Amino acid sequence: MIIDLHTHSHYSPDGKLSIPELLGVYSAGDIVALTDHETIAGWTEFKEEARKRCIRPMLGVEWMIKNCCHILSYFVSEIPQNFKDFMTERRDKERYAMRLLYERVKVLYPSLSSYENILLSKAHPENILGMAALADDVSHVSQIDFKEAVGLLRDIKGKLPDNNKPTTFFASELIEKIREWNGISVLAHPFKNSLGKSGRQSREDVAVKISELAGFGIAGVELFSEGSNLAELDFLLVLSKKFGLIVSIGSDYHSQEKGLEPAVLEKLEESVKDEVIKWLDH
After folding, report:
1. Of 115, 165, 205, 231, which one's alpha carbon is 20 to 30 angstroms from that of 270?
2. How far apart, in whole angstroms, are the C-alpha atoms of residue 271 and residue 277?
């Protein structure tokens, strides 16, 4: 049985797979969570499609935290309406912010393709312009590297007025909100560098980060994900016990080009899977 509590569909800006394509990687009896980036738009389709395939669906969201890390939020009991309303408003703001970003970039690069054509180049189920799609076109018309284009766009978007874009939370703020929403907060891929950095973090840095997040009230930590090894898993198990945290596992699967092959999770020790199932079934 595969337990995979960290996956992405094409509802995520960097996801490529439709929900049926994503679930086609799994088998009946598996437990799979959809954790698209800061959107719940795929939840209903995911639940329906998973149940058709006798896969147990779990619902989640992955959040990018200001100057820190990524945090996953899971919802295993009643989901309050105020959370659903918040997420609808958030996606409306993201759609508006990306339109504003396009307009500012168009001033810099007048030969940029039309907004509609860029939107169609990498169609998004929520009809939101993706950063990667816009960066592709900027790179083409400006002759700058794609990563440089992404950095430029993020810098410009970061300077948009706060009321024109979704809020980026600090870790303490988000952990408190997840608690208010009746959710469970979990640190995603603790050893993986974020904010565009490559490589893996040191054990010392990971220990400091988990200690700080535990102080803010985070509920759990992801033991195994893309790039993980068993030595890291064992280290995180020790820390989870020290701070009284639940544990999770996930592939961060986006497609064959990005993320861990979910089948790898099937090979983990049954004792690890049992620890995950404890809180899923609580």
Report:
1. 205
2. 10
The CATH fold of domain 3-77+183-280: TIM Barrel (3.20.20)
Do 179 and 217 touch, CB atoms closer than 8 A? yes
| Distance separating alpha carbons of residues 18 and 24, to the nearest angstrom | 10
List phi, psi (to 5°) of 196: 80, 0
Cβ(11)–Cβ(36) below 8 Å: yes
CB 4 within 8 A of CB 269: no
Boundaries of every domain in the chain? 3-77+183-280, 84-164
Q: Retrieve residue 34's tokens.
A: 């959809």
Angstrom distance (rounded) from CA 191 to CA 222: 10
Residue 127 CB contacts under 8 Å (≥ 6 apart), including other chains? 95, 119
pLDDT in tens, 228-241: 999 999 999 999 99
End-to-end Cα, the chain, rounded Å: 19
Q: Is 76 helix (H, G, I), strand (E, B) or coil?
A: coil
Pair of tokens at residue 98: 């990306």
Q: What is the pTM of this model?
A: 0.92
